[in-house]
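*** Query protein ***
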Amino acid sequence: MRVTPISPERLVELLAGRIHELADDDRRLRVAFDGAAATRPGELADALVEPLRLLGRPVRRVSADDFLRPASVRFEYGKQDADAFHDLWLDQGALLREVLDPLEPGGDGRVLPTFWDRTADRATRARYVELPPRGVLLLDGPLLLGRWLPFELAVHLDQSAAALARRTPEAEHWTLPAFERYRAETEPGALADLTVRVEDPRHPALVERD
């Protein structure tokens, strides 16, 4: 395994080029940025919006944090249950139905940008939006891989347990066992198309397997 430092700017450039080259037809592309909040997957996804548009790719941003299950399900075993966070929080059925499946070949391209307001604990009542042909969906969130969610490209943002604990707010340390379980059971680095080491998100590094 080789770990090669790369600047954040060069990483965005590399990813934009790789996404753009995935398909030269009218297919819509679904790209996942998988990582704990401390790895800042949303910031990386956001940084790719304008470069992809400059390449002629319409873009829609969606966050898995807007596709959670109701509080009654998430907190069934308490508000700080790491296994529930790992297994129950994400409403992957809604994510498939409202976002990923409509972008399959032959799909109508109509996606729901948000589904559930976790603060108000109710549906967001968002309007559907269309992702045109050749468009790119950029989805960020934790614990996305190993769930049979269809992506044309999956980027995993990797962080050691020590760095994750250091960069996670103390009030959220109860989630750390979920990420350890994810690392051990799912091995997201092996499932992802590209892994980026982000011990410090300001200084990423590409992880290349031999």
Q: What stands out?
A: The chain has one domain: 2-208. The two ends are 5 Å apart (CA to CA).
